[in-house]
Amino acid sequence: MKVSVEQNGLLSLIIDNGRQGKQHQGFCQSGPMDEEAYWWANYLAGNQEGTPCIEIIGCAKFVCDSDAQVAATGRNVVCLVNNQSVSPFETIFVKAGDRVSIDCERMGSKAYLAIHGRWQVPSPLGSASTVLREGIGGLENKGAPLGVGDTINIETPTIQSAHRALAPKHWPQYDLSQPLALILGYQEDKFSASEKGRLFLNEYTVTTNINRMGYRLSGSPIHSNMTKMRSEAIHIGAMQIPPDGQPIVMMRDRQTLGGYPKLGSVSLLDVNRLAQAVPGETVTFMSQHYDDARAAFLLNWQKRLRLTGE
């Protein structure tokens, strides 16, 4: 099957679950900005875990040249087939020539389109994920986003899988009125109690200076008593505090090393929520013990297994 790109939105990238164990070689982890939505898209499309899909910002349109089954997920995602609204978070069966349109109600949020089958795309260093900065991954392993006229080849089975749906009450929650959990790190003692209190007592605005590498926030400045430090590895969700005191939360395409003090890391579950935030929205933070963060992650994983019967 060939999937043609008729409209590519603001940014449409082929991604999968990322490059594991390659940061020591200088390659970023990459992968889906919203891992929860990505995982559900592949499950609902009948794919194996780790199958590539398309991460979309803005309105994108695709045409399959044969019958296919797809799924769309994300924050307030809107899915149309031949200009007719269809439900997200469930299997969608399309006919050859049908036009599938994917968008989000909030400009800047991410949608995920999974298409059933074996994607015939390069997997450099074990991943098809597109990294613009590194020029790796994507349709031709050039690190380029999908463009109008591009064609994705997908090897499809002769027998379709069963219809799957996720009840709305189980959809990922993107409510930003609830604080994001921050796990304090080993450099927290480089911030005074008043500086940490300032972070947890104030709102921070998502700025326009955001991308797959990191999210810059704006609010009451926080300062560290560190005057210099050596560059060191950066974990997903790490909150760096640069000299201006405005937090930067590192995301999927973060650099492998950084030299700013780190107050801690946003929990893996809440990285998904932050990834779906758009400029102008505000977030708050709460402190979470790493044991509680781990328990929340495992409970969420158990919920997936329970809902999918695996």
Please state the CA-atom Rg, rounded to the nearest Å.
20 Å
Catalogue the unreliable spans: none
β-strand percent reads: 25-35%
The total count of helices amounts to 4
Question: What is the β-strand count?
Answer: 22
Alpha carbon gap, first and last residue: 29 Å
**Which structural class best describes the helix and strand composition?**
alpha+beta
Spatially, the strands of the biggest sheet line up as: 21-14-15-18-17-20-13-22
Note the run of SSEs as H and E.
EEHEEEEEEEEEEEHEEEEEEEHEEH
How would the global form be characterised? globular
Tell me about the largest β-sheet: 8 strands, mixed
Give the helix level as a range of percent: 10-25%
Taking all residues together, what is the mean pLDDT?
95
Model description:
- By secondary structure, the chain is of the alpha+beta class.
- Helices cover 15% and strands 31% of the residues.
- It has four helices and 22 strands.
- It has helices at 35-44, 193-201, 268-275, 290-308, and strands at 2-8, 11-15, 53-57, 60-64, 68-74, 77-81, 84-86, 92-94, 99-104, 111-115, 118-119, 151-155, 180-184, 204-210, 214-218, 232-233, 238-240, 248-250, 257-258, 262-266, 282-283, 285-287.
- An eight-stranded mixed β-sheet has the order 21-14-15-18-17-20-13-22. The protein has a seven-stranded antiparallel β-sheet with strand order 7-6-9-4-1-12-11, with no helix packed on it.
- The chain is globular, with a radius of gyration of 20 Å.
